[in-house]
Amino acid sequence: QVHLVESGGGVVQAGGSLRLSCAASGLAFGLYHMAWFRQAPGKEREFVASISLTGVNTYYGESLKDRFTISRDNARNTMYLQMNNLKPEDTAVYLCAADRNDDHQYEHWGQGTQVTVSS
Question: What pairs with residue 58 in β-bridges?
């Protein structure tokens, strides 16, 4: 059974940093394109970033690239999201997702970790 477990969320003041982790089990992690999404209350789910199989290629949602960095460690079956200079509008539940075929149809999702940025 596939499990994606996010961690690292919390409450931080504006301007602070957090590093999220997504630990994967039950799948061949190195064969999956991975991504982070976020969902704020009352808003649609938003794409944050994605990363290719080896981590060479990364993609970011609009205006996030200058503050967020996605990475992965295939030896540890873990993906990361480093978030710097956080803003109150970054407050959301952050979810990781796995895509086997690189078609943006994410077959597996985690439960999410809450990030709250206070002003």
Answer: 51
